[in-house]
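Recap from last week: sequence in, structure out.
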Amino acid sequence: MSYSRRIHIGVLFFYLAQGLCFSTWASRIPDIKDLFNVQDLLYWGMVLFLIPVGKFVAIPLAGWLVNKLGSRIMVQVSILGYALSLFLIGYTSTFHSLVLLGIFLFFFGVFWNLCDISLNTQGIGIEKMSGKTIMATFHGAWSLAACLGALIGYFMIISDIAPAIHFTIVAVAILIIVTICRRYLQEDVAQEPTIADTEKVELEEKKTSVWSYVRRPEMILIQLGIVGFFALIVESAMFDWSGIYFQSVLSLDKSLQIGFLVFMVMMTTGRFLTNFSYSKIGKQHTLQLAGAFIFLGFFITALLGNISSILSVKVVLNSLGFMLVGLGISCMVPTIYTFVGLKSKTPVGIAITLLNSVSFVGSLVAPLLIGSISKGVGMQFAYIIIGLFGLCILLMTSFCAVFRINEQPQKIK
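Predicted structure tokens:
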């Protein structure tokens, strides 16, 4: 095996570690909630709210640290901090302190975003160095690891293994990955200028006008950001609340609480099918179909999930709903970024920053929105409201001009 190939595999294992860490936490959220005996869903939403707060705080911090220390160091620091936070979350129930849990969840969010930004910086550098398109492979690895983590979490739950032991095993596994694979991380290489002197002057002039893009952002970035806002609310509803839905609303036995697992399996499947969908029906129709799936998935779960007292019917109907949501949400973020490249006249870096500034609000709003609605009128009604965001995605992608592009999709035979 060539050294370049070993580098690719080594970095890929860091994506695996990140996906495993995330889904390990998400798969045990209902158990953590039970350990602290939290019955008030609004209060639990406030606890979960600390994760996106940590992620938000990390946004400016990550840019400065990666620039100062380099992605090679920051990948190692952030993934170890991510794993350590997971480990500490597992043992907070020992101290029966929700305040302590909140602190560790905040740092979990901080290291989550630090890891996201530094690892993707490393991945982009490896891609440039190799001259091959490998980012899709890296993100595919993350999705597969998230699926594996959900599956491991399911077996841990039905085996009655405490979250503390589960989280410790995963944290140790991540430590081993870092120890073995850290040698394959590369130093960031400063990009050599390749433009003419006159173009350099133009580039400097553009830098001085960055504020103009912020003061008057393109309408298409606002529209894309709103769709991203809806998508991140949907993600939060599934990542943080799917396990609780199967537990609290459906009152299913632990062995049948497979909501998060089926969602992650279909989300991963959908990511691998996204390019195929582009080629067959085009990007706009892909987003329309995604919005329809999200809408139908939540409404099947919320309106039909408890319609039958037959256990097998209940599990099948709710699993179907969660599967549709997983397929729908899988393509949202990458397709939105694709539209930025196709439609926006704003420099890409600034455009993505403006887009993320709008869409990230969805992550902040979701825990309190779902928690407050669940407390007031029940979690089923909260899922109906979230389902309406899928309908909003369908309507926006159907009638907003930004989503209309000249494509020649292949005819479906």
